[in-house]
Amino acid sequence: MAARAPTDWTSDAMRRRIARRYAAERRFKLLGLVAILISAGFLAFLLVTMAANGLRGFSRTEIALPIDFQRAAIFVDPQAFRLGNPDQVLAGANLPAAIDKAAQEAFGPDGARLISGGAVRAVRDAIVADPTILSRKTTIAVPAAEGIDVAAKGKGSAADEARVAKLRQAGVLSSGINWSFLSASDGTDPTVVGIWGALKGSLLTMAITLALSFPIGVFAALYLEEYAPRNRWTDLIEVSINNLAAVPSIIFGLLGLAIFLNMMNLPRSAPLVGGLTLALMTMPVIVIAGRNAIKAVPPSIRDAALGIGASPVQVVFHHVLPLALPGILTGTIIGMARALGETAPLLMIGMRAFVASPPGGITDPATVLPVQIFLWSDEVGRGFVEKTSAAIIVLLLFLLTMNSIAIYLRNKFEKKW
What we know:
Layout: H1 12-57, E1 59-68, H2 80-83, H3 86-89, H4 95-107, H5 119-129, E2 137-143, H6 146-152, H7 158-170, E3 173-177, H8 196-227, H9 232-244, H10 249-263, H11 271-295, H12 299-307, H13 312-340, H14 344-348, H15 369-377, H16 383-413
Antiparallel strand pairs: 1-2, 1-3
């Protein structure tokens, strides 16, 4: 009887080996599936938690406050609103006193504690919209105080929940979308704070970062890959760029503090300084990604262009750069996403200041979304918890929008060969 070959698939030993191999493959697939499920679970937990807390930050509890302006002795000529600035016209009207008195008359001695400090803005806007209410009694929906607002959303103390129950029984409590959260800036009262100031600061800072880091990083990558001679100095530059990409971000903050603030005396807490600092941090990432993208362009493209008479500059800008642009944009996305979420370098250059109005330009005091989230998370007021989560949602939407635009541009310029 002839002996079986070593590769006999019908032998018992071979069947056991194949069974073990298949079992190992099934275990590997199972481990991969478990890892994906765990990652998806953590992501879902994060998103659900942020949504549960943050969506409440986009709503506001309001109280219907009856105000008799004639009894409040607010004497303002309605014609003055058409002739001058409403803020100047109402400067001496003492609206806070009138609001406190109306709240006490409507809800008892502690009525003023039910009303937020933002009620002055709501009453002012109502007067500007209809100056004739100064001659009669009217009801204006004003924001509720922090405790009432939190209790109305199911997170307050027992005393505040009892007050909310009485207000609801009286039919004066309502809730709606807090549009001022998207148009206002920082403040001390969580019921009237907004994200627009920090969002505008982030937009200005990111615009400066992109305007500086992208062209400089692309030109540096082109020079190092296409023109620079291969010697030890070039090797030293390459090693330095790779090391800079791994430097902790706070080091760039110290660099910005030493150069842009102490040496160049640029304005502190300005988007200009923030953009310059983040550009230093982003450029190494763009250079590395740009070099890899340029190196991935097939040499045949260069040879063909040179063969039909193109100059070296034309080869680079008409053929190599367009083909490498998708990879360069990918590196730019990574660098800008990192810059958008940075807090440490911006804290070092003073962009943690309390800024109550949006910046008018790149040299005005400003803050950015990550720093604003950090500041709100450090507040003791319970109302700032949901505002922090709402700001995180805005930051994520900003990041997704920025990345979507970059991905669209990358796909638009992508060429296949």
